[in-house]
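Sequence decides. Our protein:
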Amino acid sequence: MQFDVLVVGGGLNGLCTAWWLLRRGVRRVGLVEQFALGHDRGSSHGASRITRSAYADAVYVRLMQVAHAEAWPALEADAAARLIHRRDACLFGPNGGPFQGYVDALAGIDVDVEALDPAEARRRFPVFRFPGDLGVLHDRTAGIVAAADTLAALTRIVRAGATVLEGTSVHAIDPAGPTVETDRGTLRAERIVVTAGAWAGRLLPGLAPHLTPVRQTVAHLAIDGDAAAFPLWAWRGLGDFYYGLPAFQRPGIKAAKHVLDGPAVDPDAPADAPDVRPVVEFLNEHLVSPPREVLATERCLYTVAPDEDFVLDHHPESPAVTVGAGFSGHGFKFGPLTGRILAELALDGRTTVAPFEANRARFRWAR
């Protein structure tokens, strides 16, 4: 088969890239996925995600401004569906330390995030205790991303305009071709975009030293009161990061520990037994009314890159191959924007996203 652009990997970023390629009028777009679209083996499954502007890095704050103002509205318009459900969020943690990075990153940027003292935070977010000397940020730009709905909408759009090859294993990518060797034979394209998640290091061995697949556990918990009215929240401690969101398309609140330094895993290996004790212990300490029980658990994969910076770059041996990888557990909120960036890099060699262009060295293959 011959394509103008072939996308390898059909998770969120692959689907978003294919969607933007179709928006650009590319005629022969291909998407190859080793499992079925919407599978639960990688990083994109689940009903919900968080979007927010509060970040510990001004570059990502500015990228989120573009995502919120341009990329997500474009996808919602094309999907004819509401994909972000606005909900205020609180980010909190001990004053100084890592939390201070969020305060510093937001300084001088016109974004609707307000610093609170603990007393005012308890008034606005009464489900939390906010004990001790804490800093709190109230992010009014935040929301619940309807993750499953987003994938379904993208799948519908991409199937209508591209050639989708599901259940197709990729054995090798030759940047010089550029070609993709699969169990269906050789796929040829003028340009290739690789968005293979935890499998990216296998397909592009030069990336492997820079990417670490780490397994995550997410808990769904029953609470007293209305779980749908629960706020979005994140805790940035001195050495830990927890987050959560209200009930959305399933019972109970969702909460997890954001783990970047866990052991590297084989993405094809069976998952070990989930351990939600750290999450439950955190909520017992910080919620006014601790959770009653664990309703369910989910497992997913992070693909962690150095400093949690995404890889959005051309292959060092060929500008015909573009790579999106290392989304480090915080990439879903950027999906429509990173899809745009990857499509524009593949087609034009540069992008129309000013915060990205001003900081391209941050997103290089190796840094």
